[in-house]
Amino acid sequence: MAKFIFILLFASVFVTRNDVVIYSADEEMFRLGSLIKEAVEKNPGVIAAKNKFEAKKQRVPQSRALADPMVGVGFENMPDNNFSIGSAPMEIYSVSQEIPFPTKLFSRSKMAKREAGVAEQELREEILSVGFDVARVYYELLYAHNAIEINREAKGLWESSIDAVFSRYRAARAAQGELLKSEIELAKVENELFLLENQKNELSSKLNILLNRHPDTPVGKPLEKPPSAFDASLKSLYEMAKAHRPELKAAKLKIEKTEIDHSMAVQEYLPDFEMKVSRRQMRNDATTYDTMFGLSLPLWFWERQAPGVREKKKELEGSLAEYNSMENRVLYDVSRGYSEVVALKRSIGLFSTVIIPQAEQSLEGSQAGYEAGKEDFLSFLDSQRMLLDSKLEYYRLLTRYEIALADLYFCSVGSGIDYER
What we know:
Structural class: alpha+beta
Number of strands: 6
Order of helices and strands: HEHHHEEHHEHHEEHH
Strand order of the largest sheet: 2-3-5-6
């Protein structure tokens, strides 16, 4: 269980810093780390994988146990004219035990341990998958909240613009078309707000399902933070993926399992044993004992044992090829995820330092020029649209960046990110 706690500690640091928050007093704020921890504790998929792992562990002691002994009672020499137990002159009591060749029990135990190890990696994979799903919904929900705030700001700007245009229209300094265009833009923003509210509610329900809550449970608002730091090298991510990716660990265990399976096929050439002790009780109270020791002979080895060994050898070669193929796919996933994160990080920096500040300056100039009658309405309209689109695109990029980063570490690398370093 310590390994699962380790994963949780990695997962819980996704959003643990004190950052700027767009706060609404009627909404409870929540952090991603607490959601991931709750999902790992309550998500049905994780619980099912954990129970499967616990069940597989119980096979280990079973695999090294001997078969149940056989206890028997027999009656000999019963007369043909009195077929009853009481007429038998001899009673036989026996105990027998089948004993596999010692190395076979050891190999069965090793096999069961590897199967439990595979189940453990499947549990880790499920934990990481659920953690990523929670992170993705969290950042999509954060985007919905930010987009709602931006559109509310835009709504206020358009309402102010309509007042300004109406004043100019009454003074015969603006055409009626300008007033209608402003009202159309305001209607578009109001419709977008309606769609965003629906999107927010849908994402809240999806988050509740991941946490095994009722879909209508109030969720609140995610804490907003600056873009997550990312300075890892591609080479280090490759090494982390090879060391941590659950699928690769499970594939290695399956190779070991196939090796043990091959060894067990070879051991089929070895005999199994049987011991039997019998006690004979006569009617005249005379007692005798019999002891028997037997072993199996692989007499038909060319049809049974030899093909079995060849079969397991081919399965082992196939497992090695599957591992190499999986490792190549994992490294590709890491490379693709790394490139996406780097590109999105650059775009976020460009929008935050260049595009949005310039769009704000452009709007200020257009508004002042329009109010002074030095700039036409279409330029003013384009400046407002440009600022709105730039802010929304920034948050779209930020959402894609955080989701891509979570996908890179949770799904491609199979680890977490330590933001406290």
